[in-house]
Amino acid sequence: MKRAILLLSLISLFACKNEKKEQVNSDENKEQEIEQNKKEKDSVYLFTSFREPADEGLYLAYSRDGYHWENLGGPYLAPGVGESGIMRDPSVEEGPDGTYHMVWTTDWRGGNGFGYASTKDFINWSEQRFIPAMAHEPDVVNVWAPELFYDKDRDRFIILWASTIPYRYEKGQEEEKNNHRMYFTTTKDFQEFTPTKLLMNSGFSMIDCVIVRRGKDDYVLVMKDNTRPNRNLLVGFAADPLGPYYDFSQPFTGFLTEGPTVIQQDGKYIIYYDNYGKKTFSAVETDDFVDFKNIDEKIELPEGHKHGTITKIPKQILDGLLAKSEDLKH
Question: Where does the Arabinosidase BT-3657-like N-terminal domain lie (predicted)?
């Protein structure tokens, strides 16, 4: 009898502890949700950009609604690494400590890496560094459009880019020096990087890949099919941010389109892209990455805006950028 009473007491004690633990976890989740909602409410969108011929550096635009963009001008960071004196395709991702990390294309041809710098406010920047991610490939033609993705499930940054290594892969109508595949490295601190690897061999030339996390074990890769007859955007799906990606869709954009960037807005995903054949920027909306609706009539971007990415910034950072923007005009 005593043993039975003791057993019941222990069961009751463990049950109470579990209930308290569940309550604590629930309270923490609610606090995190409230904090996230507050952060969303007190933030605006920031679109990185450049202006041809890409020798001036980083340009910026901002939006409060995700559709209408106001020009902040530039440059906010002049190109300082690479042999060509250019800064193209600036990709920005915020880290968990509030630092914004940026990578960019430094050379149209002949480079074996990409540029990197970080900032807290987009005005004051760290020293620029050149990351020679393809130095181990002596025949590499280029390193194009590096794209950052913060993999919060593993607390690491993934950097994707397109490179051509002649005669390495099968090709269609591409010249050997224009037959791209996607490569990647990962880092936790932008000091040490994992060895460069091939993301996948899709069987066709591809560039401008963007990873989108829809949920746990649910990722979308938005990419440009860079084969000569196509040169348009499509998507693939995977259970891991590094793939393998499968079920490639039909193109959802027209001929001569590239440079996608994706935001989630009003329960839908907006994909902005460079409609360079028509010398403008375009956008589509989707809620499932299966059906896409053109929303060009809803968006407005600064003249000359080129391939970049969208991130969110607190309004106090925007205040500083608005003041700096006025200085840049004089």
Answer: 41-130
Q: How far apart are CA 184 and CA 171, in angstroms?
A: 21
Q: Look at residue 36 and tell me if it is in a domain.
A: no
- Domain containing 134 — which CATH number? 2.115.10.20
- Please give the C-alpha separations between residue 283 and each of 52, 208, 215, 300, in angstroms, as whole numbers: 21, 16, 23, 10
232-238/258-265 β-pairing: unpaired
Q: What pTM did the predictor assign? A: 0.89
Instruction: For the chain, 330 residues long, give each residue's pLDDT as a single digit of tens.
Output: 555 555 555 556 555 555 655 565 555 555 545 455 555 678 999 999 999 999 999 999 999 999 999 999 999 999 999 999 999 999 999 999 999 999 999 999 999 999 999 999 999 999 999 999 999 999 999 999 999 999 999 999 999 999 999 999 999 899 999 999 999 999 999 999 999 999 999 999 999 999 999 999 999 999 999 999 999 999 999 999 999 999 999 999 999 999 999 999 988 999 999 999 999 999 999 999 999 999 999 999 999 999 999 999 999 999 999 999 999 987
Domain count, the chain: 1
- Tell me the C-alpha distance between 280 and 296, whole Å: 10
Structural domain including 223 reads: 42-328
DSSP string, 149-202: EEETTTTEEEEEEEEE-TTSS--SS--GGG-EEEEEEEESSSSSBPPPEEEE--
DSSP one-letter string for 89-114 = EEEEEE-TTSPEEEEEE--SSS-SSE
| 194 within some domain | yes
Is 9 within the bounds of a domain? no
Query: Residue 35 falls within a domain, yes or no?
Result: no
